[in-house]
Amino acid sequence: MDNFIFRNPTRIIFGKGSIAKLSKYVPKKAKVLVLFGGGSIKTNGVYDQVMQALKKHEVLEFGGIEANPDYDTLLKAIKLVKGEKVDFLLAVGGGSVIDGTKFISLAAANKVKDPWDILTHINDLKIKKAIPFGTVLTLPATGSEMNPNSVISRRATQEKMAFSHPKVYPKFSVLDPETTYSLPASQVRNGIVDAFVHIMEQYMTYPVGAIVQDRQAEAILLALVELAPKAMQDPPDYEGRANYMWAATNALNKLICQGVPQDWTTHNIGHELTAFYGLAHAETLAVVLPYVLWYKRDLKGDKLVQYGKRVWNGTANGKRARMSEAIEKTAAFFQGLGMPTTLTAYGIDPDEAALKVSQRFAERGTVLGEHNDIKPEDVANILRLSR
Amino acid sequence: MDNFIFRNPTRIIFGKGSIAKLSKYVPKKAKVLVLFGGGSIKTNGVYDQVMQALKKHEVLEFGGIEANPDYDTLLKAIKLVKGEKVDFLLAVGGGSVIDGTKFISLAAANKVKDPWDILTHINDLKIKKAIPFGTVLTLPATGSEMNPNSVISRRATQEKMAFSHPKVYPKFSVLDPETTYSLPASQVRNGIVDAFVHIMEQYMTYPVGAIVQDRQAEAILLALVELAPKAMQDPPDYEGRANYMWAATNALNKLICQGVPQDWTTHNIGHELTAFYGLAHAETLAVVLPYVLWYKRDLKGDKLVQYGKRVWNGTANGKRARMSEAIEKTAAFFQGLGMPTTLTAYGIDPDEAALKVSQRFAERGTVLGEHNDIKPEDVANILRLSR
Q: Are residues A112 and A227 in the same domain?
């Protein structure tokens, strides 16, 4: 087990009816900017619940934050925050709205020459503060409601970049499973796959004797496999949605990654597939993960066998068969949720994708994987398998 | 799953060599009171490491906090803290030193008529602040390093009482597994049993559809069963001790109890056995838990079967056999660590203990269990089984 430093100060307010408690956690005299996406919160009742809860607060609004929040949209919000001297942000939505709010929080509070620098080299900047913010989660998937991570897209340059900073842990996050009742089945499916792959990125590397972290990672994987059918029930089932919501948060709240190596190859490749082809984030993960596991099966072998046994009750004969079985079960789980696991299923040419993504990584000098051994040519090889 | 509100702001600084990082987390200009126990930290090098790390700080000392920290000892520390205007506390030790420090933190910072009121009716008091404190953990067991709980003993009246308050989450806790190398085997054993029973109190009730919390609880139980032999190795094994330390913290950091019913019958009875007979905390748990599970086996049956299957790979035929098997495996695990599971093994008459403890609960009007159905006569029945 490696040394680590861990602190997660986000308050979780969980359960049906929780939005009504909002006013207790938003500072009384704050000028609040409520940020949201395409407007689904106006039709599913969440907007009304939030506004009702904040009726004694001074509230401004900023809607229209896209899935894969766009840099140029966020610049407009930053201008509003500065101009109006907003001192509390409330993100109401899924990971995109929350990620966008994190970027706004830092870019509006700190003097940075070019806000894009936050995405490209945050560690060289003097980040001293952040505009405090809370979240009301409506789409469980990214874990952004209880972590310091953010992913921002820049459509003008077809880029999608991530940053992480301890100042952007949400002050609180309201998790009411009933806010997910209006989600289309495809988004619940995407959320489950996203959470699953988050855990895999932190777990599927090589054993370092971290018994506690391994069991905790497997716990949430097992929970996701068990809850998936319940979460996808129509009409929605409260327990299914509650477990889905809490599992997605726990999948990426920085607990299970402490003291262990991490991969994140699948996410890095996936981000480029969204940038180039517009696939939803979870869709990109499902067309990449199985092939990363297969391509690196020798180095990930011990962990693949452990995973296959503990999560999938694997019974194949011999180590190599166990490894293949674990990868196949993973892909079958995604497919069982109605999620394609090949680029070709989306009409994307794997050879073209391999070329585009590997070229970009070559330009940036990106090397991936827990061993830093996945070079641009390996990325191309991985993507060529996705057919 | 029930609604819940969760926030755990404690920073964990984990791994060998971590004590050297202390000065970064103790406020620079603070007058620091270092609190410790019987002096083992002076022989195992921990005291020297702490003082070296704090050499630029103004430091006072208060040693002699007992196992099961005594109220009268803590009153002396409170006097010192007030007299010297101490503004940061550093607990160096196990759960007793940390629990004592939490009590000092509240009693010295708030105007309370009688400090004992903090133990008997904290919710009626106006607790507005706490003297901030950190911890350097040397005996993993209670989870006090990452929770807001404290248990204080008052030898003068043979009482042992608990309190919990969100103001007494440690600001940080340094967890260096090497600090445990000098522990006698009996204390490692006690720590493992304590952590195990902490999880059982939060888990072994009845199913409420909390898939995530159940899997997370089982994860730490599984980890404890697997790590126990490694943790008890002599000479000490770093990975064994690291997993033991992190498991004990995760067993009671308020994550797995969110949204689920809790029991705590075993702890409540156990506290009285320490107060009357001086048994170590973990020793009391091992002589009570199996009989609580047996006595309440009908109401806990579904969860007992689930636990037996997931933690012990139970194979007995039929539900009642599965329930018995799960209880037997639990007692056998304790016994395998060299931990007795009967009062008679300590020369204590179960009938006398039954009388004494149930009388005290009758006087206090104490009723226990997740269904509030364990009355003083039930406590007597449970203790009579411990033979």
A: no
Q: Which A residues in the span 37-76 are in contact with B, Cβ-Cβ below 8 Å?
A: none
Asked, for residue B5, whether it belongs to a domain, the answer is no
Q: Which of residues 217-246 of B touch A (CB under 8 A)?
A: 218-220, 222-223, 226-227, 239, 242-243, 246
- Report pLDDT digits (tens) over B330-365: 999 999 999 999 999 999 999 999 999 999 999 999
Cα A11 vs. chain centroid, distance in angstroms?
Answer: 19
Interchain pair B250, A15: CB under 8 A:
no
Give B34-43 pLDDT, tens digit per residue.
Answer: 999 988 899 9
What's the 3-state SS for chain B?
CCCEEEEEEEEEEECCCHHHHHHHCCCCCCEEEEECCCCHHHHCCHHHHHHHHCCCCEEEEECCCCCCCEHHHHHHHHHHHHHCCCCEEEEEEEHHHHHHHHHHHHHHHCCCCCCCHHHHCHHHCCCCCCCCEEEEEEECCCCHHHCCEEEEEEHHHCEEEEEECHHHCCCEEEECHHHHCCCCHHHHHHHHHHHHHHHHHHHCCCCCCCHHHHHHHHHHHHHHHHHHHHHCCCCCCHHHHHHHHHHHHHHCCCCCCCCCCCCCHHHHHHHHHHHHHCCCHHHHHHCCHHHHHHHCCCCCHHHHHHHHHHHHCCCCCCHHHHHHHHHHHHHHHHHHCCCCCCCHHHCCCHHHHHHHHHHHHHHHCCCECCCCCECHHHHHHHHHCCC
A130 and A217 together in one domain:
no
Does residue A123 surpass a pLDDT of 90? yes
Q: Are residues B47 and B71 in the same domain?
A: yes
pLDDT band at A39 (very low <50, low <70, confident <90, very high): confident
**Does a structural domain hold residue A1?**
no
Tell whether A5 is covered by a domain: no
Are the C-beta atoms of A18 and B258 separated by less than 8 Å? no
Instruction: Give the ipTM.
Output: 0.96
Residue where one domain finishes, among candidates A159, A180, A201:
A180
Answer yes or no: do B15 and A9 touch at CB < 8 A.
Answer: no
- Domain of B376, in residue numbers: 185-384
Are residues B42 and B109 located together in one domain of the fold? yes
Say whether both B150 and B294 belong to one domain: no
pTM of the predicted model, to two decimals? 0.97
φ, ψ of residue A375 in degrees (nearest 5): -90, 170
Final residue of a domain: which of A139, A165, A180?
A180
H/E segment holding residue A136: strand A133-139
Among B10, B14, B219, the residue with its CB nearest the CB of A215 is B219
A258: chain B residues, CB-CB within 8 Å: 12, 14
> B24, B171, B178, B212: best mutation site toward chain A, by most A Cβ within 10 Å?
B212
Q: How far is A22 from chain B, CA to nearest CA, in Å?
A: 12
Distance, in Å, from the CA atom of A18 to the CA atom of A145, rounded to the nearest integer, reads 15
